[in-house]
């Protein structure tokens, strides 16, 4: 037994573990959006087309989405230290390769290796936090997870736009690299083994089905948002993804040791909170996608300026996430979710009347208030759902929740971008710009309706008392 193993009842300093995992997850998620404003520079430097360059962001999302569903298996197979060190190590190696890549193929290899490590970190971090903290303190620490989920992807375009204004695009990787290396070194010394290994049987068929199922859906919805729902790439990917995912789910229900346990949805609170988390994630990601398009392509602002518009909202959510976590520990998730979803719905409605002369101040303030609402919903409902699961099911719950958010983000963005494109009326509006903005307004009308559905769903969340230390609403393991 390793001297890094934590025995039941043994006290240890949790703060270094929390810090190491938070930093690792932050730099991993930051990389999802870090290249957004750098793509034109990469295109010129490597002499590639826009469609080719877009794969640098698409492949990161795909590999990330493929890795997340199998993290429950990895967490139950490897020690906490070995798995995190492997994940941050892969991410660091990928970053090094990308920073010195002489051509597009090498850069793609670096991004794939980065994403393979990044996909492990978020579910692992959540599982560790839920393992080492008692139920009455989980809201506060999961609030830090909300900070990572919101702040990291939002700061990416802003940081990227600022750096690209002064330095070559490779600087984006050189900024991340030392943080990853330092985190890797510190983790080696302070991280302890806290998760329980159960050595589940490796089912290669399930991993292949999971990869094609979730990967196909993520890629299909991503392509549908740009190429159209009837494009060959979108249709083939969605059909293959749907069929293989169905086979994957049916196979998991028959296995004694499934790669991903779908029976977590037998717990009603977990199911409702997961759906609400999906709705709020769609609201967050879709706005982060549509508003930069509106600001840059329709109003003519730079990528840096549009990134700065989103920054106060990210800061607001970053500040509020730990605070709403503490509130959750006192009052539960239901009223936080209802209040937050109401704020999201109202502020989304404010975006349905954008015009060519809408000020940056208006967009910035409304978006910041909107993200304040997101902070009240995202991690409180996630924590409330995971609190219903025992320690055996938590790795599966965290993997399932993160996977569902990834899929929801892809679906929601694809649908709203399609609505925005198809609703644009350049031929009937006084100007082409006004017609394009009309499409943006219609997309936010659809998002408003989605927010209203989220408000209704939040009413069904059971408001369990998080202060009951002996609360154990789901102490019995789900039978395979």
UniProtKB/TrEMBL annotation:
Cellular localisation: Cell membrane
Bilayer-spanning residue ranges: 20-43, 55-75, 82-101, 113-132, 144-165, 171-190, 202-222, 228-250, 270-295, 301-323, 335-354, 360-386, 407-424, 436-461
GO cellular component terms listed in the entry, alphabetical order: plasma membrane
Sorted UniProt keywords: Cell membrane, Membrane, Transmembrane, Transmembrane helix, Transport
Highest taxon, organism lineage: Bacteria
Membrane-related topology note: Multi-pass membrane protein
GO MF terms, alphabetically ordered: transmembrane transporter activity
Domain Major facilitator superfamily (MFS) profile as annotated: residue spans: 17-466
Protein's name according to its UniProt entry: Multidrug MFS transporter
Organism taxonomic ancestry: Bacteria, Bacillati, Bacillota, Bacilli, Bacillales
